[in-house]
Amino acid sequence: MARSLQVQADVPVTVVSCDCEQDKKKKMLANTNIKLIPCECGGHKTLAKMVADVLAN
Length: 57
Ligand SMILES: [Zn+2]
Known about the structure:
The protein is an alpha+beta fold. The structure holds zinc ion (ZN).
């Protein structure tokens, strides 16, 4: 996972996510170029899955 994050760090990525576990998400993305854009809550399960998919690539 760390290796893939290194690769991702060269690619600007933006993830839209609600405030739920925002601190946790920020820590997850701290060493990447992935930007978190806060949005209203509602679809955060889908959005969390998006984050997981990005991190898994
Ligand atoms: Zn939420």
